[in-house]
Design goal:
Blueprint (H helix, E strand, L loop, with lengths): L2 H6 L3 E5 L4 H12 L3 E6 L2 H13 L3 E6 L5 H15 L4 E4 L14 H29 L2 E6 L12 H21 L4 E8 L22 H13 L8 E4 L7
Parallel strand pairs: 1-2, 1-4, 2-3, 4-5, 5-6, 6-7
The structure holds NADP nicotinamide-adenine-dinucleotide phosphate.
């Protein structure tokens, strides 16, 4: 049995953004290592496909269509998770979106949707799982930021701000819940070849990006370390040097 499998057997993970891209890969990886996985995103069909793939491989999955920008929907998601599986050990916040453009000439309203999903919803999801994890005196929260929070990429100011916000939020939350047995990690990927890039013209060369499976391996490591160890922030970059 692998260390990851030993750590995740009997554990319950909730993954937002699990319908495609990074969240999908992490959900499948966690399920493959033995966790029961709750899949959240808005597109029912994609969630159903991921759930089916997990079950075909012998894993356990529950698809819960959820818009993470709706606070009551997030509360219901956590309630349903606990009702179904009796506990909640891992939260991965991979729901996110990206739009780019120079600040000069931008309309503030253009930023609202991205701020709501990438930043506020991460905060809300963290808050929603805390009572369960604190009660268990055990849990790992893994928020997905981006290297855009660390590097200065023209056109990415609003996106970078959401991701820097996630890093700062996670750093403070980590200190608040450390004594409660709850770990808070941030995974900071460079460019990853996902559907997120489909709508972005003139993006980087996708063949040189990370693969979602690479990110999933890092995520599994972060959430399966023994309780006495914490990989708090991990930057994962394409070895070829882009982003
Ligand atoms: N791709 C990259 O290069 C890269 C690099 C670093 C960090 N990241 C970050 O990684 C995360 C995942 O990105 P990705 O590349 O995997 O994107 P993706 O392939 O577009 O997947 C995004 C996922 O988030 C879900 N989502 C979006 N809005 C949502 C909402 N309001 N409620 C619930 N779910 C929502 C989407 O499902 P629905 O639309 O069906 O809801 C989808 O499942 C994002 O935070 C992104 O910023 C990506």
């Amino acid at each position: 049995m692998t260390d990851a499998r030993q750590a995740l057997e009997g554990q319950v993970a909730l993954v937002t953004g699990a319908g495609r891209g990074i969240g999908r890969a992490i959900a499948i990886a966690l399920a493959t290592e033995g966790a029961a996985v709750v899949l959240a995103a808005r597109t029912r069909q994609q969630l159903a496909e991921v759930a089916a793939e997990i079950r075909e491989r012998g894993g356990r999955a529950l698809a819960v269509p959820t818009d993470v920008t709706q606070d009551t929907a997030v509360e219901a998601l956590v309630e349903q998770t606990v009702a179904e599986f009796g506990r909640l050990d891992v939260l991965v916040t991979a729901a996110g979106t990206a739009s780019f453009g120079p600040v000069a000439g931008a309309k503030p309203a253009d930023w609202d949707a991205m701020l709501a999903v990438n930043f506020r919803a991460v905060m809300v999801c963290c808050c929603a799982v805390l009572p369960v994890m604190v009660h268990q005196h055990r849990g790992t929260i893994l928020n997905i930021a981006s290297v855009a929070a660390q590097r200065f990429i023209p056109g990415a100011a609003a996106y970078a701000a959401t991701k820097a916000g996630v890093v700062a939020w996670s750093r403070v939350l980590r200190e608040e819940v450390r004594a409660e047995g709850v770990r808070v990690g941030v995974l900071v990927p460079g460019a990853v070849d996902t559907p997120l890039w489909d709508a972005i013209p003139q993006g980087p060369d996708r063949s040189r990006m990370l693969r979602t499976e690479d990110v999933a391996r890092a995520a599994v490591l972060m959430v399966t370390l023994p309780p006495g160890a914490a990989l708090e922030e991990l930057t994962l970059l394409p070895a070829g040097g882009i982003l």
